[in-house]
User: What shape does this take?
Amino acid sequence: QVQLVESGGGLVQPGGSLRLSCAASGFTASSNAMSWYRQAPGKERELVARITPTGDSTNYAASVKGRFAISRDNAKNTVYLQMNSLKPEDTAMYYCYVWVYYRTYWGQGTQVTVSS
Assistant: This one.
C-alpha cells in the first residue's frame, strides 16, 4: 500500500525558512521521480518542484527558483523541500506526489503559512 506522509509545515514570518519532509512507503522510492505541489485557497494545485529517481536532476516553478531546493534520501525513502526566503504568496497546503504502479498518489498535505 503506497503512502506519502508530509510533515514540517507551520507558521513562519516572511523571509523565514522551513523544511518539509515526505516519507514514502509501499514502493521503492529510488525508482520513481517525486514532486512537491501546492494549493492556495481559491487557486489550482501547482507544481513546485520535481526530482528524478537518483536525484541528479531537479525542476522548479519559476516562482520558487533560487529560493526552494528539493532533495531526497533514498536510503530513508524520504523527499525534502527546503524553503528559504519565504513570502506571503508561498502560503498554501503543500503536497507530496508520485506516479507509481500506473496511478497517482498524493499525501495528505502539510500547511505552510507565511505571515507577520
